[in-house]
Amino acid sequence: xxxxxxxxxxxxxxxxxxxxxxxxxxxxxxxxxxxxxxxxxxxxxxxxxxxxxxxxxxxxxxxxxxxxxxxxxxxxxxxxxxxxxxxxxxxxxxxxxxxxxxxxxxxxxxxxxxxxxxxxxxxxxxxxxxxxxxxxxxxxxxxxxxxxxxxxxxxxxxxxxxxxxxxxxxxxxxxxxxxxxxxxxxxxxxxxxxxxxxxxxxxxxxxxxxxxxxxxxxxxxxxxxxxxxxxxxxxxxxxxxxxxxxxxxxxxxxxxxxxxxxxxxxxxxxxxxxxxxxxxxxxxxxxxxxxxxxxxxxxxxxxxxxxxxxxxxxxxxxxxxxxxxxxxxxxxxxxxxxxxxxxxxxxxxxxxxxxxxxxxxxxxxxxxxxxxxxxxxxxxxxxxxxxxxxxxxxxxxxxxxxxxxxxxxxxxxxxxxxxxxxxxxxxxxxxxxxxxxxxxxxxxxxxxxxxxxxxxxxxxx
Length: 461
Prior knowledge:
The longest helix is centred in the first third of the chain and has 28 residues, at 69-96. It contains 24 helices and three strands. Strand 2 (398-401) and strand 3 form a beta hairpin. 67% of the residues lie in helices and 2% in strands. 34% of the residues are buried. By secondary structure, it is mostly helical. The chain has a three-stranded antiparallel β-sheet with strand order 1-3-2. It is globular and about 85 Å long.
């Protein structure tokens, strides 16, 4: 199933440190040779200061060779740089962690900087040491320390570009340390900054600046979508939040334009959130319907067994085809770094969708036949169907005939006015959203932000 693995597709949109967990997970599968994965990990470490980790990977690749002298030289450089930056950062921290200073600071950053300069001789250049040390700690693999220093820097700094870089670095650090509530807050803050188009840059000045601005925003949103997968598939409410974000017009356009493979994760989130749909907002209750429309439109760009499962079930109404695709999708979801933890929920909810769709288009259903379509035994199939009728809205319309071992479903014809209401339910909302988007576009500033591509240590390879 290596042809369906998205690791190589996703890594170019991640910081190199975020790629390490994906490669580690890949080494636990049988999709690729272990030595090939270790070599990829080793290449990634070359752009970091994790000298010991890089040396251990070199030894695994070359068990009979001596470690090059460059490892020892780089280790000495890293140690000396760490000591120097730590001393400089400690001077700043001693000032800003002073209770009197903490009490005197206000919301206005410029006022705070003036206060620190007047009373303690602390300048913006000295505060930037916190950023430099946080970035250095991040490249060394000390993500917890990096998050703390980047946070302190961002509270005080007025440098827009460095603040944005610190946002990305703080988000990456929270992800790598598994602090999901903090990572979600950082993700939301970064999303607001990107969507506001309020980050200025000199590179966009001159002819074509507005076009470059839109491309920069598209690139930033593309990166944010990929980074958000770590948060949304680990946070307890992540699947619902993923649907709300990915199905919003701006991010859905980003998926269709830049990264259609994200449809896999959107489809899985919609499927596993089926039971929670009753408590969601109006549009989220019909998330699967929205996702199916997008899958149908983007079929020319991207397909896999997960998206094909929904296509066969809701577009082709081919239940045998859906069953085949589900068998493949189960293995793909289980091997996927982001989706592995919800593989069981995915299979359970996918079976419910098959059963529900099958029952909606048939009035008389053989329980043994439906059980076979779900790859269940007759006894398990009977239990499954009973739970389906109990958990869905078919309870009032369905009756189980145990003697004939069939389900009989009697549905009254839907009135014409009810059909019209169902078809036009979302028109008012979509019209309002389109109008708001047009107004926002008309008021947008002609300047934009620099490309936000990596966390604090530059682009991933």
